[in-house]
Specification:
By secondary structure, the chain is mainly α. Helix content is 81%, strand content 0%.
């Protein structure tokens, strides 16, 4: 999921540069929430994309924390 989210962030950045059809922000957040938080955060950093959007600057690290918490909970209760 991280790879998919990272690629989507790069694709959206490319589309933004050439004025093409963009990836909806909702989709980027859903992908991040479904386990792609690290990919979304890395995509922001590598592609320098969405770094001025407060919702992404705060939201992606929170989703990384949520993803990490879910992994820890699954590991504890398995």
């Amino acid at each position: 999921m991280n790879i998919i989210t990272f690629i989507e962030m790069g694709h959206d950045k490319g589309q933004a540069k050439k004025g093409g059809r963009r990836v909806p922000e909702k989709r980027l957040f859903i992908l991040a929430a479904l386990g792609g938080g690290i990919g979304g955060w890395l995509g922001m950093r590598v592609w320098r994309h969405k770094t001025k959007h407060t919702s992404f600057v705060i939201g992606m690290p929170l989703l990384v924390a949520l993803n990490s918490l879910c992994v820890i909970m699954v590991a504890i209760y398995m």
